[in-house]
Recover the amino acids of this structure.
């Protein structure tokens, strides 16, 4: 479904990603794990078109994404939940969700999508008129995921959904990811919370210093000695 | 229909009736000025309300005025054709300046600085080509010759006609403001003003949305310049172009209220009456005092009343109504209530 071939990317003179190749198949949940500064967020931004790859090729359902502008990529069916949620903090919850359905095709099905998201997150229905920036971190994360789901994506990119949340909320977020993927959506998730994320995904890539070090199924990685020592602390 | 939905029509009818019952030239002149400047300020606020602060709108206004007048004097082109040409020129300039800014993410203060330079450049061009434009001494469109149509030349001597023209244009400006306010672009632009990346990630074509509103605002402002030129029959870089005019727009809109449709109009009334009062009370002894007063007021407003006079009044009213009655249906109620002056709860406070 999504395929990256030796992608290199960065910010002007600074290169953050080197020779990244990965693929996500239809219906899968895949994680990219790794320490701070490994290039995980950059990877997400390259896929959703917020920055351009300097090298390599990105294809989504056979289409080349390397030169497709960000707003067209949303239309193709990739929704990005950015790091730190990046809600429109001064808009209401409902207006944030409305923005999620900005593309004409999604706009036509706005009511339907809104009901879908509200059923998924009943809390958001209660808070629909609240200014998004005044909600708790967990609620904001729900709103950010809800906003992404409004566009009826085929592939959901989640950038550190657990960052900055209380442990009990982190648990809820991962439960949610599980529910979303059981609904048939393909998910690519970037996380530092390795222990938790490996329980929800099928496969994972380990990204370190801008390059992919290891890849494997969740079970394999959980067994891997180096990962257990470096990331799981056991 | 309720009282509230009647109100704009009654007010509109009263405004239209004014010149038929009231012929005193001086008050009419002041009202025409207020209407033309209100339209110009509304044009600025169409983009300014989304955090796209332009300090270059004096440039667009100057283009509207000078292109129209130059085409009339040198080519003999009627303003009916000259104004569209001027609007095209202003729109093209907005594209030329806007596209690189938006494409390469020049935002906030940097965008304001680019537009400030634009306003300076237009001023310099007008003064440098003084052989054609009269430079800083100003420029007068030639009077249409006796026997030629005043309508073709768009030159009217009676204030009543001008009042009705200015009123129509002002109302059209408010209508455009509302069209933008109810469009999906408004959500897109508000989202962009909060977070460009997040907006792009939800599928907004950031560059296109910003360009569209900038061109619209520039074209409207140029139209205000052309109208001003035809009415005053005298233009100079100081009165329709340049940095002082650009700053005057920002000031008036901030004072009136940037997020409400009638805010720029309130700003025009306040600033013009202030300037007239100073001029009448102090005459030539107070030349430039209005700028001093503007400056002080601007600082006070930005600190204490960032939503402007009208914006703050509407907010107080809205808060009171919130407190006294439970609004049924939440956002549906607010959306169905198409009241122009509804203060948006999502208004930025600073």
């Amino acid at each position: 479904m999504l395929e990256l071939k030796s992608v290199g990317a960065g910010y002007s003179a600074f290169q953050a990603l080197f020779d990244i190749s990965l693929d996500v198949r239809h219906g899968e949940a895949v994680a990219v794990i790794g320490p701070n500064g490994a290039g995980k967020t950059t990877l997400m931004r390259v896929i959703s078109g917020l920055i351009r790859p300097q090298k390599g090729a990105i294809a989504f359902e056979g289409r080349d994404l390397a030169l497709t502008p960000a707003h067209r990529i949303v239309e193709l069916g990739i929704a990005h939940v950015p790091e730190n949620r990046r809600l429109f903090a001064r808009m209401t919850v409902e207006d944030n969700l409305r923005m999620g359905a900005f593309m004409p095709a999604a706009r036509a099905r706005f009511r339907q999508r809104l009901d879908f998201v509200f059923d998924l997150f009943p809390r958001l229905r209660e808070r629909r008129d609240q200014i998004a920036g005044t909600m708790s971190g967990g609620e904001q994360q729900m709103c950010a995921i809800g906003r992404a789901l409004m566009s009826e994506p085929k592939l959901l990119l989640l950038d550190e959904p657990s960052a900055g949340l209380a442990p009990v909320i982190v648990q809820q977020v991962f439960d949610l990811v599980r529910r979303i993927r059981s609904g048939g959506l393909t998910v690519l998730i970037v996380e530092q919370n390795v222990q938790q994320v490996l329980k929800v995904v099928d496969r994972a890539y380990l990204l370190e210093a801008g390059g992919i070090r290891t890849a494997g199924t969740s079970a394999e990685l959980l067994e891997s000695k180096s990962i257990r020592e470096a990331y799981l602390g056991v | 229909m309720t009282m509230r939905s009647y109100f704009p029509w009654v007010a509109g009818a009263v405004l239209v009736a004014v010149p038929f019952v009231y012929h005193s030239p001086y008050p009419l002149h002041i009202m025409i000025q207020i209407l033309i400047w209100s339209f110009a300020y509304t044009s600025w606020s169409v983009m300014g309300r989304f955090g796209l602060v332009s300090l270059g709108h004096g440039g667009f206004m100057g283009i509207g005025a000078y292109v129209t007048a130059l085409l009339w004097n040198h080519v003999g082109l009627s303003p009916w054709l000259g104004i569209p040409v001027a609007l095209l020129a202003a729109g093209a300039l907005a594209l030329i300046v806007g596209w690189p800014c938006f494409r390469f993410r020049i935002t906030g203060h940097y965008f304001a600085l680019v537009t400030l330079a634009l306003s300076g450049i237009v001023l310099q061009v007008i003064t440098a080509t003084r052989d054609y434009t009269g430079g800083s001494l100003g420029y007068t469109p030639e009077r249409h010759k006796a026997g030629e149509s005043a309508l073709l030349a768009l030159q009217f001597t009676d204030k009543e006609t001008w009042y009705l023209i200015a009123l129509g244009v002002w109302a059209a400006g408010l209508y455009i403001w509302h069209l933008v306010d109810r469009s999906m672009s408004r959500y897109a632009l508000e989202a962009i003003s909060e977070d460009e990346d997040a907006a792009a990630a939800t599928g907004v074509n950031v560059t296109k949305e910003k360009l569209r509103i900038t061109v619209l605002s520039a074209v409207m402002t140029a139209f205000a310049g052309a109208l001003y030129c035809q009415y005053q029959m005298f233009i100079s870089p100081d009165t329709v172009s340049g940095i002082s005019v650009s700053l005057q727009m920002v000031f008036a809109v901030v004072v009136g209220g940037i997020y409400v449709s009638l805010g720029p109009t309130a700003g025009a009334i306040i600033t013009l009456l202030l300037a007239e009062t100073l001029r009448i009370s102090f005459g030539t002894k107070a030349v430039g005092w209005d700028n001093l007063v503007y400056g002080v007021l601007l600082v006070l407003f930005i600190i204490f009343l960032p939503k402007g006079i009208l914006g703050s009044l509407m907010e107080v009213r809205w808060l009171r109504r919130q407190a006294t009655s439970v609004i049924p249906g939440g956002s549906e109620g607010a959306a169905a209530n198409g009241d122009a002056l509804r203060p948006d709860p999502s208004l930025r406070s600073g």
